Amino acid sequence: MRLSKSRNKTRKPFLPEGIRIYAISDIHGCADLLQQMFTVIDRDLTTIGSRRAIHVFLGDYIDRGPDSNRTIELLIERGMKHESVFLKGNHETFLLDVLNAPSQLQNWKQYGGLQTLASYGLSPSLNPDPAEQDQLIRQLSQAIPVRQQYFLRSLRARFVCGDYFFVHAGVKPGVALARQQEQDMLWIREEFLESNQNFGKYIVHGHTPVQQPDIRPNRINIDTGAYATGNLTLLALQDESMLAL
């Protein structure tokens, strides 16, 4: 992996000396693609010498794709072996909401929740009535391993390193980064995506699928719709250089 310098005309964002960051977003249950990216990272780790490597995952680990269960297991195992930061996506928030309120299952279906249920060995009908919803959520609560539940409840909303601000969806323009609301960081789209303002840090995000990494002077979007395209993007950052694979 050879990093090429950013071509932004504005001041280039910079990481502290001696740090390399690997960032991945919106895995959406594509465990096989995630495993492939780990292979790429592991190969690169043999070349970085004494640099401190940090893995940053930007949320939406579940739903839509075929294996949310295995995806979370892979992430947990990765975090046990490498310095890792796990951010919260709107899909993880939805799952936690459903566990507390089974009636939300109907809405969760629209976000790919049925695929997540299936990955834990459950077989929901296409239109579960309230009684089945309650039963499914009770079964799901029992099927999700304790360590996965702890993982889901301990996810962070943001991570800052050097000139970079990592977040799932984006930030609200006009609001200081320190005062950003979690709802915006998990769900925002147009207001953030259409903004050309300098946010104070360079924003690394996902949430809104694009055909290829979208590099702007103030942000980069690395959600390339893995569950639909088969393309899971890996972003590598070091000094003032970035490379998206």
Q: What's the shape?
A: globular
Q: How many β-strands, per DSSP? A: 11
Strand order of the largest sheet: 1-11-10-2-3-4
Decide which structural class fits the backbone: alpha/beta
Describe the protein.
With 245 residues, this protein is α/β, with parallel strands linked by helices. The protein has a domain at 19-85 and 155-244: Purple Acid Phosphatase, chain A, domain 2 (4-Layer Sandwich). The chain is 36% helix and 18% strand. It has helices at 31-45, 68-81, 90-100, 105-109, 113-119, 130-143, 146-153, 182-187, 190-193, 226-229, and strands at residues 4-5, 19-24, 52-57, 84-86, 158-161, 164-167, 202-205, 214-215, 219-221, 234-238, 241-244. The longest helix is centred in the N-terminal third of the chain and has 15 residues, at 31-45. It is globular and about 55 Å long. Mean pLDDT is 94; it is low at 4-8. This is Serine/threonine protein phosphatase. It comes from Bradyrhizobium cytisi. One of its GO terms (biological process) is RNA decapping. InterPro entries: Ap4A_hydrolase, Calcineurin-like_PHP, Metallo-depent_PP-like.
